[in-house]
Write a structure and sequence with these properties.
By secondary structure, the chain is of the alpha+beta class. The relative contact order is 0.18.
C-alpha cells in the first residue's frame, strides 16, 4: 500500500519518545491538541490546534512538547508511487516544487476554511477509524487532501537558524560523501558538540 494513516493520543507525552528522523515518503501531520512546537530542518513552528505540517521526503523533523499536556495528532504518510498509481501526479507539486512554497505549515484557519479539516474527518469515518484504509473511497479522500494542500497557502517558520540552514545545505549537496562532525566544525566554526 502506498499510504498509511494514524491517529495518536498520548495522555502525558515525553520528549524522550520523540526523535529527529526523516522518511522516504511525504508526511502530512495535523496537530489536534497539546502544547508543542514542530521542527522541520532548521525551521520551528509553534502549533495551534488543527495546524498542518507538510514534511517532504528526507526532511529531518520532530515534535517538541513544551509540557506534558495531553497530545493528539493525525499523520498521513503518502509514498511518491501513490501519485502515479492514482493518476494525480500534478498534486505532488506541493511536495517537490519549492519555488512557490515558503514553509511547511498550513495554519489552522486555512486548514478549516479550505476543507482539509473536514476531509480528515471523512477519512477517519470512511476508514472505520483507520481500521479499513484500503478502499476506493479512502483513496479518493486522500487524493482530495493532496489537491487541497496544493491550493493552500503555506506559512513561514516562527523561528529559523541561518547557520544551521547553511550546514544542512552543505550536507544535502554532499550526501554521498563521508562528512564528519570535525569537518563541519572547521568549516562552519560551530562546536561539533553543539552541532
Amino acid at each position: 500500500m502506498y499510504y498509511d494513516i494514524t491517529k495518536q493520543t498520548i495522555i502525558k507525552p515525553s520528549n524522550r519518545n520523540f526523535h529527529l528522523h526523516c522518511h522516504n515518503n511525504y508526511e502530512i501531520y495535523m496537530f489536534i491538541e497539546g502544547d508543542a512546537k514542530y521542527v522541520v530542518e532548521e525551521n520551528t513552528y509553534n502549533l495551534e490546534p488543527y495546524d498542518m505540517i507538510i514534511i517532504r521526503k528526507h526532511e529531518m523533523h520532530r515534535i517538541y512538547h513544551n509540557s506534558s499536556t495531553k497530545y493528539s495528532r493525525y499523520v498521513l504518510s503518502v509514498s511518491p508511487e501513490f501519485f502515479r498509481e492514482e493518476g494525480c501526479e500534478v498534486y505532488e507539486t506541493a511536495f517537490t516544487d519549492f519555488s512557490h512554497v515558503t514553509g511547511n505549515k498550513i495554519s489552522a484557519d486555512t486548514v478549516r476554511t479550505s476543507g482539509l479539516y473536514n476531509a480528515f474527518l471523512r477519512l477517519e469515518k470512511y476508514s472505520d477509524a483507520f481500521l479499513n484504509v484500503n478502499t476506493p473511497i479512502v483513496k479518493s479522500v486522500i487524493t482530495e487532501i493532496l489537491y487541497l494542500i496544493n491550493t493552500a497557502s503555506f506559512s513561514s517558520a516562527d523561528t529559523s537558524n541561518s547557520r544551521i540552514k547553511d550546514v544542512i545545505a552543505y550536507i544535502n549537496n554532499r550526501y554521498t560523501e563521508n562528512i564528519s562532525l570535525d569537518e563541519l566544525e572547521k568549516i562552519f566554526y560551530i562546536s561539533k558538540y553543539h552541532l
